[in-house]
Amino acid sequence: MSAKAIFVAQATTTPVEQTGRAAIDVETYVDENGYVQNAGFVLKKIPALEKGSMDGPKAIVLHRTDSKTLASPLQSFEKGIGTHFIVDKDGTVYQTAGLLKKTHHVGKIKSRCYESGTCSADEAKQIRSWGWAPAKVHDHEKAKAYPERYPMNEDSAGIEVVADHDSAKWEEPTAEQSKSIRDVVSVLNGGVRDSGWRHL
């Protein structure tokens, strides 16, 4: 070996105090496939979740996993039911589906105007006449444009938060989860007009 060659790890490096290291600020953006870049999220693509093109997202729906760990919901996601993001107890955010695709994370929706008391008298009477009929109410509501109705899979991004539930209440998010939820919502609010729907 020539005298000019130095084995890796044998070279002298500049002491840290003599370096001009600086933090760089990079823009967070959504790429052409709907994946968030430069936000510190972990990309964990689950192709089974993506169910066709989405009109939006126009809203954000926050869910809880009803589990103690990340493993169980990720198994469910592999079966095609889940959200675009999942936030683990330590605050790690996993993006599992692109924001250009809808996922199956919202079930049948209730009537927004009926729940808020803003339906016309005729519409309220019609909905009351159906009694307990979730499918009928859902079909009635999906004919409306958002935000006249609650968000649906077709126009909302879903965020799942790892949290357990007992008979009385949901587990509170950890401090790390709370920060990460705010971070995801902040990124999504760049292109989302309404946010924060809770679907329990």
Notable characteristics:
single chain, 200 residues, alpha/beta, Lysozyme-like, 6-stranded mixed β-sheet, two-stranded antiparallel sheet, 5 helices, 22% helix, elongated, disordered C terminus, Amidase/PGRP_sf, Amidase_domain
Explain the layout of strands and helices.
Layout: E1 29-30, E2 36-37, E3 42-43, E4 59-64, H1 71-77, E5 85-87, E6 93-95, H2 112-116, H3 121-130, H4 134-142, E7 156-161, H5 175-188, E8 197-198
Parallel strand pairs: 3-6, 4-7, 4-8, 5-7
Antiparallel strand pairs: 1-2, 5-6
TL;DR of this structure?
With 200 residues, the chain is of the alpha/beta class.
Number of helices: 5
* Level-1 CATH class name of the domain at 41-106 and 151-198: Alpha Beta
The CATH level-2 architecture of the domain at 41-106 and 151-198 is identified as: 3-Layer(aba) Sandwich
Largest sheet: 6 strands, mixed
Unreliable spans are: 193-200
Beta fraction of the residues? 5-15%
How helix-rich are the residues, as a percent range? 10-25%
Query: N-to-C SSE series?
Result: EEEEHEEHHHEHE
Instruction: Label the structural class.
Output: alpha/beta
The CATH topology of the domain at 41-106 and 151-198 is given as Lysozyme-like
Question: Kindly state the mean pLDDT as a whole number?
Answer: 89
Secondary structure tally: strands: 8
The fourth-level CATH homologous superfamily of the domain at 41-106 and 151-198 is: Peptidoglycan recognition protein-like
InterPro entries: Amidase/PGRP_sf (IPR036505), Amidase_domain (IPR002502)
Pfam families: Amidase_2
GO molecular function: N-acetylmuramoyl-L-alanine amidase activity
Domain N-acetylmuramoyl-L-alanine amidase: 57-187
